């Protein structure tokens, strides 16, 4: 406080001050404002060697006030609750997080982080304390995917606070998550896949089967639900028909009438040919019949998967209930849309299709994400040993079954 009292205003430069040090004159800024929790606060920076730099920093801060950035949370005692609320508000307003993402982040924060750290100043959360918290969560039996997600929420908060100079450094970065339960198995055997699809052909009508077949191509559920008439463009190449399928919007339980796709790379076009052409033809005409019968408008942006009685777009959650649950009850095989996406990735890469092509087909932003979708299969393992066997066990060496 003694040093602050020696600051002197720089004439004609409001909120810019100068003070003397052993190394000469230095400049600083002091700017009052109300922070995001409605309390009077002050933004203070010092150590500038000239007033131009000090004023530049002041203008940057004032610009953040106008644009609604997170910088106004400058008080070093700001709590995790206050910063998280400001972060969510900022991400929503900028459209960085979709409604589904906001709900996920809030749920994980409220369920796992709020009670322990919510009212704590961010600068007072130590690495050892947070590591102990993570270890206790693991001991409670939380799955690895849950642990990674809740930690990612904390890291997003702390990294953003570091970026905005609310904390000096994110001391929680690189925390260890060891010993958590492995993620739930989402692999499908070839036998289960064949049995599930055979049963589906007996239980579902052709309109419903088309939805299932499109999901086998690796679409996300929200992408299937968001398919519109403009999504399909029919063409011919070398005398054979094909469909160009373009993904424009996604429909989720949070945005049942349509919203942005999951990531920028999700906006893509795939091409299909073969037996599915007939199913898509049928599905498009069937959707038109439903809309005509229910006196609803048919246009390029009209969704094609509808409630057959009302003509309204089928709710995204009903895809699981109307398709997968029915077949599960008949077969005992639990299958979900995302498992089909994993199955597609596994089979495509296992069969030697180019990684980049599979990545773009699935709408992934990088190869690592596509590779993470693959799962080891018995068929894949047999294909490896059948290919490597002649190399490994040549010249009369005993094979894996003991024979020569």
UniProtKB/TrEMBL annotation:
One Gene Ontology term from the biological process aspect of the record: DNA integration
Domain of life assignment: Bacteria
Tyr recombinase domain: residues covered: 183-386
InterPro entries membership: DNA_brk_join_enz, Integrase-like_cat_sf, Integrase_catalytic, Integrase_recombinase_N, Integrase_SAM-like_N, Tyrosine_recombinase_XerCD
GO MF annotation: an example: DNA binding
Keywords: DNA integration, DNA recombination, DNA-binding
KW Metal-binding (keyword) present: no
Name of the protein in question: Integrase
Organism: Lacticaseibacillus paracasei N1115
Lineage: Bacteria, Bacillati, Bacillota, Bacilli, Lactobacillales
């Amino acid at each position: 406080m003694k040093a602050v009292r020696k600051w002197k205003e720089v004439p004609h430069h409001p909120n810019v001050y100068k003070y003397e040090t052993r190394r000469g004159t230095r400049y600083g800024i002091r700017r009052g404002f109300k922070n995001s929790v409605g309390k009077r606060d002050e933004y203070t920076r010092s150590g500038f060697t000239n007033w131009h730099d000090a004023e530049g920093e002041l203008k940057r801060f004032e610009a953040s006030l106008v644009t609604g950035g997170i910088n106004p949370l400058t008080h070093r005692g700001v709590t995790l609750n206050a910063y998280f609320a400001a972060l969510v508000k900022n991400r929503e307003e900028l459209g960085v997080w979709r409604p589904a993402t906001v709900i996920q982040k809030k749920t994980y924060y409220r369920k796992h982080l709020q009670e322990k750290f919510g009212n704590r100043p961010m600068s007072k959360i130590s690495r050892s304390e947070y590591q102990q918290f993570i270890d206790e969560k693991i001991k409670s039996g939380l799955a690895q995917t849950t642990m990674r997600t809740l930690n990612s929420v904390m890291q997003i908060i702390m990294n953003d606070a570091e970026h905005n100079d609310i904390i000096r450094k994110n001391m929680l970065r690189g925390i260890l998550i060891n010993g958590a339960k492995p993620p739930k198995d989402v692999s499908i055997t070839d036998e289960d896949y064949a049995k599930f699809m055979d049963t589906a052909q007996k239980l579902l009508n052709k309109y419903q089967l088309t939805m299932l077949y499109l999901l086998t191509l690796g679409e996300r559920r929200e992408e299937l639900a968001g398919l519109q008439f403009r999504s399909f463009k029919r063409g011919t190449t070398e005398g054979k028909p094909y469909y160009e399928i373009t993904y424009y919007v996604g429909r989720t339980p949070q945005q049942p009438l349509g919203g942005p796709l999951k990531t920028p790379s999700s906006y893509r076009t795939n091409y299909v040919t073969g037996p599915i052409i007939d199913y898509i033809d049928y599905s498009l005409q069937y959707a038109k019949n439903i809309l005509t019968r229910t006196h609803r408008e048919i246009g390029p942006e009209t969704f094609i998967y509808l409630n057959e009685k009302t003509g309204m777009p089928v709710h995204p959650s009903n895809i699981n209930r109307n398709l997968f649950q029915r077949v599960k009850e008949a077969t005992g095989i639990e299958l979900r849309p995302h498992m089909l996406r994993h199955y597609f990735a596994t089979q495509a890469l296992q069969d030697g299709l180019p990684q980049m092509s599979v990545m773009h087909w699935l709408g992934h932003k990088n190869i690592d994400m596509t590779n993470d979708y693959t799962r080891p299969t018995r068929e894949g393992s047999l294909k490896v040993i059948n290919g490597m066997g002649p190399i490994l066990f040549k010249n009369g060496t005993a094979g894996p079954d003991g024979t020569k």
